[in-house]
Amino acid sequence: MEYTLLIDPLAKQDIIDIYNFIEVNDSEDKAEKLLENLEKTYLSLEKLPARGHIPEELRNTGITRYLEIHYKPYRIICEISNNVVYVHCILDGRRNMQELLSMRLLR
């Protein structure tokens, strides 16, 4: 079964921010390659949405409706409802994830 994939506007902004950071601090080529790989990763959720796991920071608070998949240090946080996968955020896992997830998902 294939799912519909919806990207939250804030997740789209995450992608833009990540791209811009890599472009400025490394190179446009690396930013393009990273963008391509991130897109490939989150688009794969259309076919295999439940392959992720509950983020540890959320599991510890008893919240289990979100899943995450990874690409390098980036964490793609999503939620499955019926046949729709909602991508809520794409975050650098090296940052304070507890704080970021609290601000983004528990608002």
CATH class: Alpha Beta
Largest sheet: 4 strands, mixed
Q: State the distance separating the first and last CA atoms.
A: 31 Å
Overall geometric form: globular
Strand order of the largest sheet: 1-4-3-2
Query: Remind me, CATH topology?
Result: YaeB-like fold
User: If helices are DSSP runs of H or I spanning 4 or more residues, what is the number of helices?
Assistant: 4
Describe the structure.
The protein is 43% helix and 25% strand. By secondary structure, it is α+β, with helices and mostly antiparallel strands. The protein has a single domain (4-105), classed as 2-Layer Sandwich (YaeB-like fold). It has a four-stranded mixed beta sheet. α1 (9-25) packs antiparallel against α2.
Core attributes:
107 residues, alpha+beta, YaeB-like fold, 4 strands
